[in-house]
Design goal:
Layout: H1 3-15, H2 25-31, E1 36-41, E2 44-54, E3 58-66, H3 75-84, E4 91-96, H4 101-106, E5 110-121, E6 132-134, H5 140-147, H6 156-162, E7 168-175, E8 178-187, E9 192-199, H7 202-213, E10 221-227, H8 231-239, E11 243-253, E12 264-266
Parallel strand pairs: 3-4, 9-10
Antiparallel strand pairs: 1-2, 2-3, 4-11, 5-10, 5-11, 6-7, 7-8, 8-9, 9-12
Helix pairs in contact: 2-6
C-alpha cells in the first residue's frame, strides 16, 4: 500500500466497526511502510492486510479485510499468503475474533490469551495526583525504556508519533525520578480509545485511567482493549463502570514473547499489536 491506500483501509476499518483513531495514519504507517498490502480486482481495491515487521524477529498482522460482497472467493487467502512473505522467519502475532481462531490455527497460530473490549464514558475533571504528568514533560528515553516491557521489540519511532497525535492526551506517573506507568487517550471515529494503559500497580493504573477519562467529554464513549489474563485490569474496567462489548484472541505463530502482562491494562491497537 501507499499512504493513500492505508487511508482507504482505515475507512474500511471504520465501516467494519473497528473504530480506528482519527489520526492513526502517520504512526501506523511509520512502523513499517513496506508492511501494508492491498488486493485489487482489476482497478478496484477489494482487500487489505497489515503484516508489519518489528525489527528482524517479530511481526504483527491486522487490518485483514475483504469487501463484503466478495468474501468466500479466495481473495483474502491470496492476499494473506502474499503478505506473510514479508515476515518470513519472524514470530508473528495477531488479534482476531474467536470465530476465526480455528482458521488461524490451521496457519500455525496458537492462542496466547483473550482480550475484551470495554466501553465506558468520559467524566468530569478529577483532582489529579501531582505524580500524574504530561509525557511531553519527561525524557523520551525513559518512556521508550519503560515501554519495552510490553513489546517484544523496542518501538521508539512509533511511540514518539503515538504520544504526539492531535486530539490526544498522553500522561505518565512520575515518582521519585522514575516512570511507573503511562497511558494515551486518542480521538477515534466514535469517542476515544485509552490505548495503551500500562502501570506498575493497580492504584497507578486507576489514577491514570481516571485522569485520562477526565480529558474526554462526559457524553463520549471511551474504549479499552483489556488482556483478560490480567485480572487486575478486568477489575479496573468493571469497577470504573465499563461494559464488555466483544472479545478477541491474541495468537502467535512461533514462540509467544514474554511480556509484562501483569502490568498491561490496555493494549495499544488490535491492528499492529
Amino acid at each position: 500500500m501507499t499512504r493513500g491506500h492505508l487511508s482507504t483501509t482505515l475507512s474500511w476499518a471504520a465501516r467494519e466497526g473497528w473504530n480506528p483513531g482519527l489520526h492513526d495514519l502517520e504512526p501506523l504507517h511509520g512502523i513499517d511502510p513496506d508492511g501494508f498490502f492491498m488486493g485489487w480486482l482489476g482497478e478496484r481495491p477489494v482487500a487489505s492486510i497489515a503484516c508489519v515487521r518489528y525489527g528482524d524477529s517479530h511481526g504483527f498482522i491486522g487490518f485483514y479485510m475483504v469487501e463484503p460482497t466478495l468474501r468466500r472467493h479466495g481473495l483474502g487467502l491470496a492476499l494473506w499468503n502474499a503478505a506473510l512473505g514479508h515476515v518470513k522467519g519472524c514470530v508473528v502475532g495477531l488479534d482476531g475474533v474467536p470465530a476465526q481462531q480455528d482458521n488461524y490455527r490451521r496457519c500455525g497460530f496458537e492462542l496466547a490469551w483473550y482480550n475484551v473490549r470495554y466501553r465506558g464514558w468520559g467524566r468530569e475533571s478529577v483532582a489529579q495526583d501531582r505524580r500524574v504528568v504530561s509525557l511531553s514533560s519527561l525524557p523520551f528515553a525513559r518512556l521508550a525504556a519503560y515501554d519495552q516491557a510490553f513489546q517484544p521489540v523496542a518501538r521508539p519511532v512509533f511511540l514518539q508519533a503515538w504520544i504526539q497525535m492531535p486530539q490526544s492526551h498522553a500522561l505518565g506517573w512520575w515518582e521519585d525520578g522514575d516512570l511507573r506507568g503511562y497511558g494515551v487517550l486518542r480521538a477515534c471515529k466514535e469517542g476515544y480509545k485509552l490505548a495503551p494503559l500500562c502501570a506498575d500497580s493497580p492504584a497507578i493504573a486507576e489514577a491514570l485511567f481516571e485522569a485520562l477519562c477526565a480529558r474526554a467529554r462526559r457524553d463520549q464513549p471511551v474504549f479499552m482493549d483489556v488482556p483478560e489474563c490480567n485480572l487486575q485490569a478486568t477489575r479496573l474496567a468493571l469497577t470504573q463502570g465499563m461494559e464488555a462489548t466483544f472479545p478477541t484472541a491474541r495468537m502467535y505463530r512461533g514462540h509467544a514473547p514474554q511480556l509484562a502482562l501483569s502490568r498491561l491494562y490496555g493494549l495499544t491497537t488490535l491492528e499492529v499489536g
